[in-house]
Amino acid sequence: MKRVIIASTSTLYNGGYLEYLKPTLTDFFKDVKQLIFVPFARPGGISHDEYTEKVAGFFADLNIAVKGLHEFENKIEAIENAQAIFTGGGNTFVLVSMLYKFNLLDAIQNAVENGTPYLGSSAGSNICGLTMGTTNDMPIMYPPNFRTLGLVSFNLNPHYLDPIEGSTHMGETRETRIKEFHHYNPQSVLGLREGSWLEVLGDKITLKGELPARLFQQGKEPIELETGSDLSELK
Amino acid sequence: MKRVIIASTSTLYNGGYLEYLKPTLTDFFKDVKQLIFVPFARPGGISHDEYTEKVAGFFADLNIAVKGLHEFENKIEAIENAQAIFTGGGNTFVLVSMLYKFNLLDAIQNAVENGTPYLGSSAGSNICGLTMGTTNDMPIMYPPNFRTLGLVSFNLNPHYLDPIEGSTHMGETRETRIKEFHHYNPQSVLGLREGSWLEVLGDKITLKGELPARLFQQGKEPIELETGSDLSELK
Question: Which Pfam families match (chains A, B) (predicted)?
Answer without folding.
Answer: Peptidase_S51
